[in-house]
Automatic annotation (TrEMBL):
One GO MF term: NADP binding
Keyword Hydrolase: no
Ranges where the Glucose-6-phosphate dehydrogenase NAD-binding domain occurs: 13-188
Protein name: Glucose-6-phosphate 1-dehydrogenase
Lineage, highest ranks first: Bacteria, Pseudomonadati, Pseudomonadota, Alphaproteobacteria, Acetobacterales
Source organism per UniProt: Brytella acorum
Length: 490
């Protein structure tokens, strides 16, 4: 992961170019890369969708989006207008052969030797027909890549079908399955923390680590995404992709190198080493729940079923315990948790070390805890035991070492999409998901979803603005663990 090379002029076609993802994330990310000089003159960013817009109308939408989603310090009206000169629009239905493909050909004219990236910010069911049309209309060149947004399927069978469909038209080396969590700088820091610091590398195993928690909590509800979310749920939306990827980085053996396939081989090995989930383990090691009405930041909020307007068995909260069956991780619990309408917005990795066996302070020390803050306030903290300066005896107190990365380095931490968009141009797949990773993740999580569909584990509930259901607390208590927010009581 050395300094990324400057890219040559490229063409980037976004299917779903008027959608929320494009306006909230993709185009602001391109704007930031433009400010940094990483979008050379002559690049063309082409938004496509079914909406009947002209170029000026599309540029006006992007202009409004940048005002809303770009931080004030980075927004510059003159630079925005210069950036918009790179942006084009075409009303096009990628899934239909009779759509305006001639119009796309005109927009891309003269760029046959350039890198072309086709980004699918659309429903996965459109991936194969759109790829077929790109191939049959002659748009797939030697320098073409395709970027696929998650979810890749809703189960193993559908994932295999999507992967096979896209593979008919693009080689695996030209398929970039994006997981924006891997684009987060602090997630990438897990590799540096583990393998570039001997003090952590030496203790990164079950001999010294009791448990690892991976949490992605949001205060928002499903809101405008209710229709999508009710067909997905917390597990498909977050666990199968984002959080299992983080688990892999925490648990993998050192890869042979930082070449893409070496890193991805190491991650696949973790997914294959996960202890299979049976009905019995689903009962004991998983919790699913829906939020009920409550209060967040002093404001009353409705429950999930009230927002949805009809009954549902979709989980907005999931917590599960996993085991990695390798010698390194014997007797270590990995906890994964994600939810809507939680008390605070946080994404973090919490490593709890085993209590000291020193006879000098028997039973007196609290466990060391390492917290890697993915977002917000990217950084890390480490809790250790020190002598109490207010006591003449050797009484111990906890002290915290805290580092905020943006403050430490004096930089704006980039959004995760900023690097990923251009890594696809560079043809660097290290932060993208390989086909066997997707399918291995579905093989492990599929039995959990199947068991829930048969009500093997009941649906629980939690009050909006809380830290989730009591059942999740009890699940950890059975293994002598507690969630991070309760660790001050340890």
């Amino acid at each position: 992961m050395n300094a990324a090379p400057q890219v040559e002029p490229f063409d980037y076609v976004i299917f779903g170019g008027t959608g929320d993802l494009a306006m909230r994330k993709l185009l602001p990310a391109f704007y930031h890369r433009f400010l940094d000089g990483d979008v050379p003159d002559g690049c063309r960013i082409v938004g496509t969708a079914r909406a009947q817009l002209d170029r000026a109308g599309y540029q006006a939408r992007i202009h409004d989006a940048l005002k809303q989603f770009v931080d004030h310090a980075s927004y510059d009206e003159k630079r925005v207008r210069k950036f918009l000169e790179c942006v084009f629009y075409l009303s096009l239905d990628g899934s239909r052969a009779d759509s305006d493909w001639d119009g796309l050909s005109g927009l891309l004219e003269g760029g046959e030797d350039r890198v072309r990236v086709f980004y699918f910010a659309t429903a996965p069911r459109l991936y194969e027909p759109a790829c077929a049309n790109l191939h049959e209309k002659g748009f797939v060149t030697a320098g073409s890549r395709v970027v696929l947004e998650k979810p890749i399927g809703t189960d193993l069978a559908s994932a295999e079908e999507i992967n096979a469909g896209v593979a008919r038209y693009f080689d695996e080396k030209h398929i970039f399955r994006i997981d924006h969590y891997l684009g987060k700088e602090t997630v990438q820091d897990v590799l540096a923390l583990r393998f570039a610091n001997p003090v952590f590398e030496a203790v990164w195993s079950g001999e010294y680590i009791q448990s690892i928690q991976i949490t992605a909590a949001e205060t928002v509800g499903v809101e405008a995404r209710a229709a999508y979310y009710d067909t997905s749920g917390a597990t498909r939306d977050m666990v199968q992709n984002h959080l299992l990827q983080v688990l892999c980085l925490c648990a993998m053996e050192a890869p042979k190198s930082l070449e893409a396939d070496d890193v991805r081989d190491a991650k696949v090995a973790v997914l294959k080493a996960l202890h299979p989930m049976t009905d019995e383990s689903v009962r004991s090691d998983t919790v699913r729940a829906q939020y009920q009405k409550g209060e967040i930041a002093g404001h009353a909020v409705p429950g999930y079923l009230e927002e949805l307007g009809h009954p549902s068995h979709t989980e907005t909260y999931v917590a599960l315990r996993a085991e990695v069956e390798t010698p390194r991780w014997k007797d270590v619990s990995f906890y994964i948790r994600t939810a809507k309408r939680m008390k605070a917005k946080t994404s973090e990795i919490v490593v709890t070390f085993r209590a000291s066996s020193s006879q000098l302070f028997p039973g007196a020390s609290r466990p060391n805890i390492l917290v890697i803050r993915v977002q917000p306030d990217e950084g890390l903290s480490y809790r250790l035991s020190v002598k109490d300066p207010q006591d003449d005896t050797f009484t111990l107190r906890s002290a915290e070492m805290n580092v905020g990365f943006p403050q430490q380095f004096g930089v704006r931490y980039p959004d995760s999409y900023e690097r990923l968009l251009l890594d696809a141009v560079r043809g660097n797949p290290i932060l993208f998901i390989r086909r066997d990773e997707v399918e291995a993740a579905w093989r492990w999580i599929g039995p959990v979803l199947d068991a829930w569909a048969r009500d093997v584990a009941p649906m629980s509930s939690y009050v909006a603005g809380s830290w989730g259901p009591d059942e999740a607390t009890r699940m950890l208590d059975l293994h002598g663990d507690v969630w991070h927010e309760a660790m001050d009581d340890m």
